[in-house]
TrEMBL record, chain A:
Localization per record: Mitochondrion
Protein species of origin: Nycticryphes semicollaris
GO annotation, cellular component aspect: mitochondrial large ribosomal subunit
Gene that specifies this protein: Mrpl43
Descriptive protein name: Large ribosomal subunit protein mL43
Coiled-coil residue spans: none
SMART domains: L51_S25_CI-B8
UniProtKB/TrEMBL annotation, chain B:
Listed GO MF terms: rRNA binding; structural constituent of ribosome
Lineage: Eukaryota, Metazoa, Chordata, Craniata, Vertebrata
Superkingdom of origin organism: Eukaryota
InterPro entries assigned: Ribosomal_bL20, Ribosomal_protein_bL20_C
Keyword Cytoplasm: no
Protein name, entry field: Large ribosomal subunit protein bL20m
GO cellular component, one term: ribosome
Single GO biological process annotation from the record: translation
Amino acid sequence: RYVRQLQRLQLLFSPTAADSRGARQFVEEVALDFARQHPDVVLYVSPRTGLAPVLLAEYLNGTVREELIASKTSEEIKQLATKLAGQSGLDIIRIRKPFHTDNPSIQGQWHPLTNKPSALTVQGPRLQPQ
Amino acid sequence: MVFLSAPKWLRSRLTDRFWRVQEVLKYARHFRGRKNRCYKLAVRSVRRAFVKSTKARREKKRFLRALWITRIEAASLEHGLKYPSFISNLLKSQVELNRKVIADLAIYEPKTFKSLAALAQRRRQEGFLAALGDGKEPEGIFSRIVHHY
C-alpha cells in the first residue's frame, strides 16, 4: 500500500509583501482543494513578515526542503506542491548504481586460496591425502 | 533592468556577485592549489573539468570492458584455460553472458565460474574431436545447438 513520504507542508508568507501575492492567491483559491486531494499531507499556513515567502516540505526520513515561492503564480505554486508531494525525502544527488546488495556473494567471495589445493588433497610424489 | 539615460546608469549596482562566484567555486572546492580559491583560475579549471568528464564517459566504457577482460583472463587461467578459448567456447555452447556478469561471477561466485570454465573446456575438446576425428565418432553432447524459435 502506498505511504506518502511527505509529512507536512508549511506555507510561510507575508500578508502584505508584493512577492507573496501568488502565495496569498494560492491560499485563497487552491489550498483547500490541494489539502483535500492529498489527505495524508498536513498543510500549515502561517504568516511571516520581513522574509521571503517559502514552502517548507518535511519528509518521513527527516529531510527538510525549502522552496522559494517569491513572485510565483498560484498555478506554479500548486505544481511545485504536487511535485514535492510525490517526492521521497532522499537527497537529490547522482545515484552511482541502480542496485545494491548486502550479501553480494553466496558461494563465498574469491580469495587467493580458493582454487589452490589444500594440504588435505595434495597429490605429490611422496605426499598422500590424509 | 535597462536604464536608458546615462546619469541613471551609475545607480544600478551588481549585488549578486558573491553568489555568482560561489556557483563556480563550489565545483572547484576539491582542486589543488589556487584554482580552488581564486575565481579567475577556477573558471578555467572548472570548464576543463566538465569538458573532460563529458569526454571521459565514452572512455569509461572501454576502460571497464578492458578491466572485465583482465579479470576473466586471470580467473580462467586459474582453471587452466586462456581467455580467447574460454570466451569462444562459451559462445559456441550458447551461453550468452556478457563480460561484466562473468567477471562478477568470477569474484563473488567462484564455483559457478569453475563450472563455466569446465563447460568451455568440454566444448573445446568436443570441437577438437569434431575437427580431427572425421565423422566416425558420435556428435558431442555440448555441441548441440538449441533453436529458440
